[in-house]
Amino acid sequence: MAAQAVVAKLTFREIRCRRGVPGGGRSRERLLAAAAELTSVGGWANPTMGRLAADLGVSRQTGYNEVGAKAGPAEALVLRETDKLAGAVGQIVARQGDAAEGVIAAFCHIVAAARVNPLLKAVLGGQDGDELPSLITTRSQAVLERAVTAVTPVLRAQYPERGWSEEEWSVFAETFVRLLLSHMVQPGGPPERTATSVRRVLGRMLDR
User: Fold this and answer.
1) What angle do CA 137, 110, 92 make, to 5 degrees?
2) Mapping DSSP to helix (H, G, I), strand (E, B) and coil, where does residue 72 land?
3) Tens digit of pLDDT for each residue in 91-134?
4) 3-state SS class at 140
5) Residues 6+ positions from 197 with CB-CB distance below 8 Å
6) Using an 8 Å Cβ cutoff, are 207 and 172 in contact?
7) Is 172 helix (H, G, I), strand (E, B) or coil?
8) DSSP character for 203?
């Protein structure tokens, strides 16, 4: 408990020095990077806008202008992480010639990465009613839409031989993302079991 109290009092500047997080850059990116680091070590209650603004040397109003008020910072932070995970899908499927193998590999990689990602662990480990967990559980529409929009063109471009339309790939991507969110929130057991169960669903969709 004492160690957690010390961590909660760390400023972003101190964390940046310890972890080598770069400074500089646009205000929005710096704010989100700071929020991610502080959330990773102290939970979502840690990075208040006042604290972020003070640590980064900007006004509180500038912070709100960049990421919005109320749910704005939380949603921006979760969507930032969503973009990273969507990018990982593209990198992984690009290394696989077979659509089913590529999709399953991407799925399993992201589920495994989520289990050790400090920010996602902090998000998923939050209390019921907290802003961050609700954005990928009870109010996940923004994350779902963002991920589906990013993943659909990646899969369509990588596997043109399937001849699927944009709408068909969009339906598949939505199924992929919904399953992914479910396994991130409620892990389905060992990686091997996850791969088998997901293959049964997504593999059959691809085999039709």
Assistant:
1) 140
2) helix
3) 999 998 888 999 999 998 888 888 887 777 776 665 544 556 56
4) coil
5) 188
6) no
7) helix
8) I
